[in-house]
Amino acid sequence: MIGSNDSNTSGLGTLETLTTTLIDSINGYRDAAEHAEGTRFQEIFRRNADERSRVVEELRAEITRLGGNAPDDGSFLGATHQRFLDLKAAITGRDDTAIVNEVERGEDYLKEKFELALKADIDPQARTVIERAYQSVRQGHDQISALKHGLEA
After folding, report:
1. Cβ partners under 8 Å of residue 148, min gap 6
2. pTM (2 decimals)?
3. What is the Cα–Cα distance from 23 to 32, expressed in whole angstroms?
4. Where are the domains of the chain?
5. What is the CA radius of gyration of the chain?
6. Which of 39, 81, 115, 117 is most buried, judged by most C-beta within 10 A?
7. Which fold has domain 10-152?
8. What is the mean pLDDT of residues 34-50?
């Protein structure tokens, strides 16, 4: 479980994992904006990438406060997922519906990671930072979910 290996329950490992996952999200949003055909989708994806960048900076500051080294890039799995998204976009010919579906899948994963982190026994100040970040993640998740369901209607 996220946070179970944190020394003295500070939350450092949890924060590092969430930061790495958010960086993957930023990369995914930027890639989605690049491959989306509709300017409306491009704008939403870029705005969400910018918002995630802001949240990453908050998590990095908390990691530094706890004495850790904040991650600068995403995970290997995220990089692999990114390549798949690139391939899928190339094959599907920039199909906005497919891109939105893929982004929503990533949002589901990210939201779940934050929900697990909030169940961990961690430093109260770190928890507050994670809770604020989760509000942003949940808002982005709900926005993309509504966008996906709007396309299905």
Report:
1. 100, 101, 104
2. 0.84
3. 14
4. 10-152
5. 16
6. 117
7. Ferritin (1.20.1260)
8. 93
